[in-house]
Amino acid sequence: MAKTLAEKVWDAHVVRKGDGDGANAQPDLLFIDLHLVHEVTSPQAFEGLRLAGRKLRRPDLTIATEDHNTPTLDIDKPIADLTSRTQIQTLRNNCAEFGVRLHSLGDAEQGIVHVVGPQLGLTQPGMTVVCGDSHTSTHGAFGALAMGIGTSEVEHVMATQTLSLKPFKTMAINVEGTLRQGVTAKDIILAVIAKIGTGGGQGYVLEYRGSAIRALSMDARMTICNMSIEAGARAGMVAPDETTYEYMKGRPHAPEGADWDAAVEYWNTLKTDDDATFDAQVDLDADTLEPFVTWGTNPGQGVSLSESVPSPADFGDENAKAAAERALQYMGLEAGTPMKDIRVDTVFLGSCTNSRIEDLRAAADIIRGREKDPNVRMLVVPGSARVRLEAEAEGLDRVFKDFGAEWRFAGCSMCLGMNPDQLEPGERCASTSNRNFEGRQGKGGRTHLVSPVVAAATAVRGTLSSPSDLEPAPEPAAIRIDAA
Amino acid sequence: MEKFTKHTGIGVPLRQSNVDTDQIIPAVYLKRITRTGFEDALFSAWRKDPSFILNQEPYSAGSVLVAGPDFGTGSSREHAVWALKDYGFKAVLSSRFADIFRGNSGKQGLLAAQVAQDDIELIWKELENAPGTEVTVDLESKTVVCGNIVAPFEIDDYTRWRLLEGLDDIGLTLQHEADITAYEATRPSFKPKTLPARVS
Ligand code: SF4
C-alpha cells in the first residue's frame, strides 16, 4: 500500500498494534528512538520513577540540556533566581542518579534542546523523537517524527522507551517556486499559519513539500518544522534528501562507514510514495511571497510587511473579529497603520526557531557596516554554546558588537523570559521566536514575529523593516573576518 | 501503583458543588519540582478558615472525601490528584466528576467513585451526625457503606480493572515488555545512541 512519509516512520516503530479497528481502535505502542530532556518538564517525571521504584529504561537514548532557565550573562556565577536555580540543580541531580548524559551551562554542547539534538547528529531521518516541549516538531526537518509530550508521558517514555499513540491524519503543505531575495523560511511558515490558522493543523502531521522546500538548507527547514505546532499540528516533517545527508555527515553521532551506507539506503526510502494520498492539502506560492510579520497576539495574526495593520472589520468570523480587537488593544496598534511605520524598542535574535549559525550569518550580513538605531536595544542569543563558538570563529560576534548589539550566552532567553531577559510592560519587540502570546516575552510586552533578516533591518531603522528598505551600506564596508 | 480493592477510613463531608482544581490546589503551588509533598497545598485557601471541615477533628484524619456534584472541574493540573493523595485521601465520592480529573485520578490510583446525589446526601447527614464515622469503599462489589447506608457507585470497567490490578499507564505498557525487548533487538545499528558521548 502506498504510504506517506509520516506513515512510513510510524509503521517502522510499532512495537504493538492497538486492539480493535477504526474509531474503536486502541492506541498503538510506538518505540521512541530519542528522548530529549530539559529542566522544566522533567522533575516530576524523574520523581515518578523514583516513587514507583522504576529504572530509566534507556539512558543511552536519552540526553538532557539546560536551556529555559539559564542566564545569558554571567554564566559562571550562581543563578540569581531561586526557582530557576533549583530547577537546574534538580536536573543535575536527577541526571546523575539515573545516568543521563547532561550538557550543563558552560559546556560547549549546552543550549536549546532543539538546537543541540541536530547539531550533535543525534536527530536523524526516520526516527521518533520526543521531548517534554512543544517545539520538538523542529526535528521533523530531518524526516523524523518528532513530537512534544506532557510530563506523565515523559515519565512513560523514561520507564518504557515507548508511547501509546493514536494515529494522526496527514496534511501536505506544498510550497512551489523560488523565494525572492530577503524572503526566508520564517516567512513561509508565518504565511502558512496565517493561511490555515492556529488550529488548522489540529490532528495532523504536516509534510512540507515542493521545490521551495527542497531548495532550503537544514537550518531553514528546522525553522519551518519548529512552528508546525503554532498551526496546531502534532508534528511537521520534510523528507530527507542530499541536503539532509550533507548536513549529517561527520556530525559526532552520525553513522560512519558501513553504517552510514546502510543508513543512507534506508533514508532514501523515506519519501511519500507517488500514489499515496494525504488527508488534506495546502498550496503556497513561493514566488510571490514577501517578508511576513505578525501584528497580533497569536502566530496566525500575520500580514506581509508591506501591508497595514488590519481592521477587526476585515474579519468575517465573529470570533476572529473579537480576537483581532483584543489583539490590537493589547498590541497598542491602530488599524490601517502601515506595518513599516511601527517603532520597536527591542530586537531579539534567538530561540529554537532562529538561533542557528545561518540565522546569525544572515542577520550579520544585513547589519555589517551599518549603524543600529540608537533607540533600539538588540539581543543576540545563539541557540547553543557550539553555535556561539562557531559564530565567534567567523567573527560574527564582532559584527554584532560593533553594531551595538548585545552578544549573549546560549539559551531560550527572551523567547519566554524564564530567565532575566524580559520585555518591560508596553515594550515592543521584533522577535525571531515563535510565540507572540500576551506576556510571553515579559509581562505586558508586545511581540512581532519576524525573520532574522527582518529583525536585523529593523534594528537598523528602528521601525519594522525589510532588508530591501535599507540604504546601501556605506563604503568601505567592514571586512568580514572568516574562520581560519 | 498500589492495588485498590477495598478501603475503610473516616469520611469527610464536603458540602460544596463545583469544586474546581484551582480550589483543590492553587496555581502558586505548580512551580514546585516534586510530585509529592502537596498535602499542605490541598484546599490551602479554604484551610485558612478555622471552621473548614479539614480543620476539625476527627475529619482532619479523613481518607474518604464525600463531595458535591461537579468535582474537579477547571484546569487539567495533575497536581490536584497529587494533593488529595498526599493528604491521605484514597477515594472521592461525588455524583459527577470532571472528565480530566477522573482520568488523572485513575492514572494516579485515587478512586473517583460516582455515587447518586441522594445517597451522597444521606452519607453527609450520617457523617455530620456522627463525626468520625468510617466509610468503606469496596471496588470489587462497587458499593459504599457508611453506618447503615449501603449505596452502589459507578466507575468505568477499564479504570476499575486497572485499579484492582494496580496498573498505571506505565505498568500496563510494561505488561508488553517482551514486545519492547523484541523490538529493541531489531533496531538497526546505524541508529544513534547518546552514550557513550561523542563530542567533536
Ligand atoms: S527557545 Fe522558546 S520555544 Fe524554543 S524551547 Fe526554548 S522556550 Fe521553547
Name a few traits of the molecule.
heterodimer; A: 484 residues; alpha/beta; 5-stranded parallel beta sheet; 30% helix; globular; B: 200 residues; 7 helices; binds iron/sulfur cluster
* Content-based structural category of chain B: alpha/beta
Q: If strands are numbered along the chain, what order do they take across the biggest sheet of chain B?
A: 1-2-3-4-7-6-5
Q: How much helix is in the residues of chain A?
A: 25-40%
Bulk shape of chain B: globular
Number of helices of chain A: 15
Radius of gyration of chain A, taken over Cα atoms and rounded to an integer in Å: 22 Å
User: N- to C-terminal separation of chain B?
Assistant: 43 Å
Please give the number of β-strands of chain A. 19
The percent range for strand residues of chain B is 15-25%
Q: How far apart are the termini of chain A? A: 52 Å
Largest sheet of chain A: 5 strands, parallel
Low-confidence stretches of chain A: none
* Mean pLDDT across residues of chain B: 94
**What series of H and E elements makes up the topology of chain B?**
EHEHEHEHEEEHHH
Structural class of chain A: alpha/beta
Strand content of chain A: 15-25%
Largest interface: A-B, 49 and 32 residues
Number of strands of chain B: 7
Biggest sheet features of chain B: 7 strands, mixed, barrel
- Count the helices of chain B. How many? 7
Strand arrangement within the widest β-sheet of chain A reads 5-4-3-6-7
